[in-house]
Amino acid sequence: MVLATLNSHSTHLLCDLCTSDISAISRCMECAISFCDHCEEVHLRQKSSADHEVLSLDEAREKGITKVRRQIMCMGHPDLELSVFCSTCCQVICRECVSVSHRGHTCESASRAAKSHLSKLRLAADRAKNVLEETAVAASRLNSTSKKIEAQCNKVQSEVEKFIEDYIRSVEEHKLGLLEQIRQVREEKLQRISQEKMKLQRRIKDARDVAYFLDELLSEGTDVEVLSFVNPVMSKMERCEKSEPTREMSYCQSLQFLPEETVKCPDSFYAVYGVLTTQNVSLKNCRLSVESLQNLRVGKKAEAILETRDNSDMPVDRGGEAVTAEIRHRDAGVSRPLIVSVHDRRDGTYCISFVPDVAGKLLLNVNIKGQHINGSPFPVTVRSAKPHHGTFHCCSFCSSGGNKEAICSCGGKMPGGYKGCGHGHEGHPGRRHWSCCGNVLEHSECSKSNSQYQYTL
C-alpha cells in the first residue's frame, strides 16, 4: 500500500529531512529518503553516502521504489528520529540526546555504526545458524533415542506381561495338578480304608454268627448235637481267626507338601515351587558313604554322600529334608566344633563336606530334623599329610649341578652315566616335580613310602 503510493506519479512527496514542507525532487535508493534540491547536495557531499544511487523522483518511480524508510522516533524527544549511535552506551539516540544526556560520549551516525557492526552481526547470524543446525541435529537424535527407548520399553513390557501371564498360567496348572494328586491320594487311601472296613464287617458278622450259634447250642443242644457241630464250628473259628489282620492305616504323615522344592512344568520351561510326596524318610534306613571317610588328611577336603530312604527302604527321590551335620574333636576331653557344610542335591542325596584342621580322632554327627540317623555319630580318623623329603626341581641335572649320582623318582634317565632325569630326555615329566616321588604338584602329599628302617641290635 505504501509502496504503491510512493510509485504513483500523482503523489506529492515532501523532503524527508527538512522541517518545513518543501517538495522533494529526488530519492536515495539505498537510504530510501526523499530530498529537496539542497538536502540532495548535502547528502552526496557526505563521505558515507557519496556513492549512493540518488535518482530523480520520475527516474526512481520508473525503476520502481522497493524500499520504505522506517522511522523510529526517540522516546524522550518524540519529534526527533533515532539517527545517532552512542558507542559508549551502545544505544541509538536522537541528535537532541547527544547534547543532553550523552555529552562527551563517542557518537557516530547510525548508518556508519551499522556498517561497522554489520560483520559482527553476520558472524553472529552464522553462529546462530550453526547453533540452529546443531540443535536440530541434537533434537533429532533425542527424538530418535526417545523412540528407541519407547520401543525398547514397550518390548520389555510386552515380554514381562507375557512372562507373568504364562507364569501365572503355569502356577495355576501346577495348582490344579497338585489338587488332582491330592484327590487321587485321598481316593486311594479312603478306598483302602473302605476295603479294610468291609473285611472287618465280614469278620464281625462271622464272629457274631459263631457266638450266637454257640450260645444257643451250648444252652439248648444235647450232647449229641454239641458233638455233631464241634468240627464245623471250630473250622469256622479257625478261618475267622486266620483272616488277614487289619493293617493299621497311618494318615498323619502319609501325604506331605514341600513348598521349597521346585518342579519344572511339563509344557514350559518355568520352574514352580511346591511338590507333594508320600515318602517319609526313615532314619534307620538312611545311609552315609563312610568309605570316603577312611583316609582323611589334614587340610584336604573330605566329602561324604548321605542317601535318604523311606520306610520301605526305597530311595527318596526329592530333597528338602532338614539335614544337619557336626564334627567334634576328641582331644583330652575337650570338644570343639568344626565347620561342616551340607549341600542338598534335590534328588534325595546330600553332600556333607568339611576340611580337617588337625590330626586326630573325630566324631561325625548326622541328623535329620534333629534326630540321629542310623550309625550316627560316625568315628573318623584324620592323619597328618606325609611331607616331601626331596627337592622340587626341573631335573636332577640342574638341581645337583651336573652330579651323575643324583637320582629322581620320576623315572627319567639321561645318557652318559647319569642316574637322574634331564630336560628333554626319556621319562622326564615335562615340568617341575618332586625328586622324592615324582609328583608334579608342589603343594601335595608325598606318595613315596618310607624306605628307611631301624634295627635294634
Automatic annotation (TrEMBL):
TM ranges: none
One GO cellular component term noted in the UniProt record for this chain: nucleoplasm
Superkingdom of the organism of origin: Eukaryota
Keywords: Coiled coil, Metal-binding, Repeat, Zinc, Zinc-finger
Pfam families: Filamin, zf-B_box
Keyword Ligase: no
Filamin repeat residue intervals: 278-382
Coiled coil: 146-210
Domain B box-type stretches: 69-105
GO MF annotations in UniProt: ubiquitin protein ligase activity; zinc ion binding
PANTHER family hit by this protein: BONUS, ISOFORM C-RELATED, E3 UBIQUITIN-PROTEIN LIGASE TRIM45
Name used for this protein in its record: B box-type domain-containing protein
